[in-house]
Amino acid sequence: MNLFDFFVGPFVTYGFMSRALVGAVVIALSAAPVGVFLMLRRMSLTGDAMAHAILPGAGVGFLLAGLEILPMTLGGFAAGLIVALLAGLVSRLTIQREDTSLAAFYLISLALGVMLVSLRGSSVDLMHVLFGTVLALNNDALIMIGAVATISLVSLALIWRPLFAECLDPNFLRSVSGAGQAVHLIFLALVVLNLVGGFQALGTLLAVGLMMLPAAAARFWVKRLEALCLVAIGIGVASSYLGLLFSYYLSVPSGPAIILVAGAIYLLSLLVGNRGVIRTRLVPPRHRIA
Amino acid sequence: MAIELRDLTLGYDGHPAVHHLDGTFADGSLTAIVGPNGSGKSTLLKGITGILKPLGGSIERGKTPTRNIAYLPQSAEIDRSFPATVADLVALGHWRSRGLWGVITGTDYGAVREALEAVGLRGFEDRALDTLSGGQAQRALFARVMLQDADVILLDEPFTAIDEKTTADLIALMRRWHGEKRTVVAVLHDIHMVREVFPDALLMAREPVAWGSTAEALAPDNLLKARRMTEAWDEHAPWHEGHTHQHGRAA
Questions:
Q1: How far is B66 from B60, CA to CA, in rounded Å?
Q2: Adjacent-strand bridge partners of B6
Q3: Please, which of A31, A193, B46, B71 could form a disulfide with A211 given CB 3.0 to 4.6 Å?
Q4: Does ipTM come in above 0.85?
Q5: Contact A198/A34 with Cβ under 8 angstroms?
Q6: pLDDT band at B232 (very low <50, low <70, confident <90, very high)
Q7: Is B20 in contact with B9 (CB distance < 8 Å)?
Q8: How far, in Å, CA of B194 to CA of A65, rounded?
Q9: Do A169 and B84 touch (CB under 8 A)?
């Protein structure tokens, strides 16, 4: 077997492998920049909470229509948005902070979602919803993922500057514009949208992996915001490709393989990145003469 | 542009931090706001910028306040670990002319460069924020205020933890804004600096203590009064009677 066959062959030979690759790469492209902003806003765990919050909506879609893409996606999107809005509302109307109310709502959501899916489906269906089936992406699913990525990237480009200002100096933004709150909500909607887009392929729980792990790894390599987004996208794309390759040759589940590769890249970056443990702690610091 | 406060009450959770404040920051005036910690100084600036809605009373600040007021928050409220450059931070000052969606053009970056030169940060455009000293960061924020080109400039403790040379440079900038007939209001702790630099002063202790020429407002008996008044924040204070608004009574 030559190198081409080894590295490219599976994706040429099998339609399900090429569709899986396209799906995962597009998800990585769209979710990684959102993950960068989540990380910079110290909201890394919010993505995880939102991933759980999607479940009851997807569950309702499943109950009504079975394992169909559109109902489950729309339901998930609606449920995620409702939880995000409720959490924000509680933090504004009461003394409880947003992280606490978000935790409360996503736990309620998770339990409700698992119950809804179990009402009609088997534990296999539940596994499908929780962890996805990237190897079973059909054309409808790919179109959905493409649409989500397009909306997400265009929206992010439009709100880039206010979002940047809201992260860096929220009081300044509030002093020049009333848009801060709206920008925050649009951003949360993008988080939900990307998780919903990813959940066909990776499931609600693993979808957040292609969002956060590349962003977290990129932080060890570069400093600029734009560079962070590009490096995170690169890591996400590489994880998707390598994960599928591992999954193919080692016969392991593809979704977890993709996320594990992203996790390995994170650990590697943590150790040897420009700003990782070894360079910052073990190499004696140099300094310039002035 | 003048800023008029009419029976203004601002606060959090119903507790007043600024209580029944009446008065005017005259057009083109240079005023220091002085008072003990917790006396409502920063709260007042947040109220004037519109970040905080009044619990009672009103603030008259012209038709387009967000375009005419430049606000410099306390430096602690800015996330300096955020991966941005000095130019990114300063370019936010173009908000007034570029709005939410506008493109920052090459000319705009020219203006950023000029503003950085004016605050003594020539060549700092591409430096990362987390490499700046506290003084350099404050200089950059003053450059952003310059770009905002606003009629009213509000500065919240602009010289805290800043060395003498930087403070002197930034005071010179502030005087220049005053010379350009802008209305400048700064929250400060250093009474000596206020006496030297600011023609007018507002002494606060949640209740307004004195407002007028600096010499009168900061007379010793006023300062003593402010210190006595500021202590109480009573969780169980009865609700203020006889007002249309509801907020806790301070003492």
A1: 13
A2: B58
A3: A31
A4: no
A5: no
A6: low
A7: yes
A8: 71
A9: no
